[in-house]
Amino acid sequence: MVSASGDLVIRVTAMPTDLNPYGGVFGGWLMSQLALGAASLVTRRTGRKAVVVGATDFAFPGAMQVGDELNVYAEVVRTGRTSTTVATRGFGRARASEEQVEVANGSFTFVVLDDSDQPCIIQAGAQVV
């Protein structure tokens, strides 16, 4: 079984609408699941809205099929004044198996917003001012 670091933030099953024209799971769907999970982690840690301002370093080392389960793990790797970067890894698990294979990974940078949708200062402990 593959070992993943960070928090489990998404667990979802790939459906027929998530496929590319070749019958595999669409890379864009994988990226969106990674982004949703990363945003969830930032929002839970700060209690605020978090919007993506950058996405980098994507790789798709494995493939998924319809019916496979995707497990997304996220970990904060950098926190700046108003932004934070989250590393994500997605692991696919065939429906009738316990074995997981890494299928996607990448990093997202978020800016945390206040109630007026303006950037917030992130304090130690991921709390905002």
- Based on helices, strands and strand pairing, what is the structural class? alpha+beta
What are the segments in which pLDDT stays under 50 over at least 5 consecutive residues? Answer: none
The CATH architecture classification is Roll
Strand order of the largest sheet: 1-3-4-5-2
- Radius of gyration based on Cα positions: 15 Å
Share of residues in strands: 35-45%
Write the element-wise H/E pattern from the N-terminal end onward. EHEEEEEE
User: What is the general shape?
Assistant: elongated
Number of alpha- plus pi-helical segments: 1
CATH class bucket: Alpha Beta
How many angstroms separate the termini? 41 Å
What is the assigned CATH homologous superfamily? Hotdog Thioesterase
Q: What is the CATH third-level topology name?
A: Thiol Ester Dehydrase, Chain A
Largest sheet: 5 strands, antiparallel
* Topology, number of strands: 7
Overall pLDDT level: 92
Number of folding domains? 1
Helix content: 10-25%
